[in-house]
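Technical note accompanying the year-one report. For the benefit of new consortium partners, we illustrate the data format agreed upon in the data management plan: each record pairs a sequence with a C-alpha cell string. No post-processing was applied to the example shown here.
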Amino acid sequence: MRKPSSSWSTRVVLAALSAASYHSTAWADGPVSALCADPEQTKVIQERFKTPNRNLVDSLRQELRISESAILSGLPQERAVGVSGSQFQAVWVQLHTWPDAVVAIRSGGHVLEVHGPIHAGEPSKVSKYFNLAPEGHGLSGHLRPDLVSAIYAVKLPGRNGDDHGVIFYDSAGEAAFGVYVPSEYVRPDAAGMQRFQDTWSRMQSMPAACPGQRLD
C-alpha cells in the first residue's frame, strides 16, 4: 500500500482553506484583486516567512483574510513564482516532462490524489475544454484553462523539508488542483526535482500573476 507523501499535510491544509468561508466577496476591506496581496500585506507575509513553518499559509490567510493565491503572491521569490492563467498551456507542457507526479484535486473540503505521469493535452475544437490524452495510468479528463486565473510554482514548508508543486487558481484566488513532486517521507527523486526546477525556471520568464508584487 502506498504511504501518504510528505507533501500530503501541506495539500490537506491548503484544501481545508479552500473549503473555508474566506471568499473574496466577503472581504470588503481586502485588496481590489482577489489574486494579489497589497503592499502592506506583502510586507507581513515576507516578514513572517523569515521563520517559516508548515501551517504558515493557513495562519496568514486567517490573519490577513485574503485568498490563498494572494498569500502566495506575497511570498519571498525563493518560495513562489506566479504566472498569469493565460500561461496554462505553456505550464502544462512543462508538467508533461515530469517523470512522475501527485495531482491533488480539492472539492468540498476533500482531497483526491492521482499518482502517475502528467499526460499531454490539447484544446477542444468544439468547447472550452483542454482534453488530456488517455495514456495509461495517471490523470485523465478535461480541464478548463479559461477558468484558471493564476498558476504558482511553490516551495512550501512540509513535514520533512519543503514540498514542491504547481498549483492552479480560479478567479477568486481559490485552488482548483495542484501537481506535486512525489515524496515518500524521504527526499524527492532527483530526476523529478530537476524537472520541477526546470518548470520553475521556465515560469520565471512568463507573464507574472501579480506584476511588481515582490518587495524582495
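Partners are asked to follow this layout when depositing records. The beta strands are 80-84, 101-107, 110-116, 121-123, 130-132, 142-143, 150-158, 161-169, 175-180.
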